[in-house]
Amino acid sequence: QVQLVESGGGLVQAGGSLRLSCAASGGIFSNNAMGWYRQAPGKRRELVASITSAGAPTNYADSVKGRFTISRDNAKNTVYLQMNSLKPEDTAVYYCNAIIGDLPATSWGQGTQVTVSS
Description:
By secondary structure, the protein is mainly β. Helix content is about 0%, strand content about 55%. It contains no helices and eleven strands. The protein has strands spanning about 5, 10-15, 20-25, 35-40, 45-50, 60, 70-75, 80-85, 90-100, 105, 110-115. Strands 2, 4, 5, 6, 9, 10 and 11 form a seven-stranded mixed sheet that branches. Strands 1-3-8-7 form a four-stranded antiparallel sheet, with no helix packed on it. Strand 7 and strand 8 form a beta hairpin. The chain starts with a strand and ends with a strand.
């Protein structure tokens, strides 16, 4: 059974940093690209960063480029999102998922809330 467990969110002031983690189980991780998505209230879920199964290349949404860094530890079946210079518009629930054929591969986990105060 595939399971995705996100953690590391919280409340931070603008300009601060957070590091999100996503632990994957059930065989979805090793051979697939992984992505971090976010969904703000009243908005559609969007992909903000992705990483191939080998760890490179990585891709970022324009809104986070230069501030966020995605990485993965294949030995731990875990993907990370380092978020620096956070802005209030980064406030959202953040989710991870495997990416197969440019689409999320499985059901979503519970996500982790990131709130950035101004």
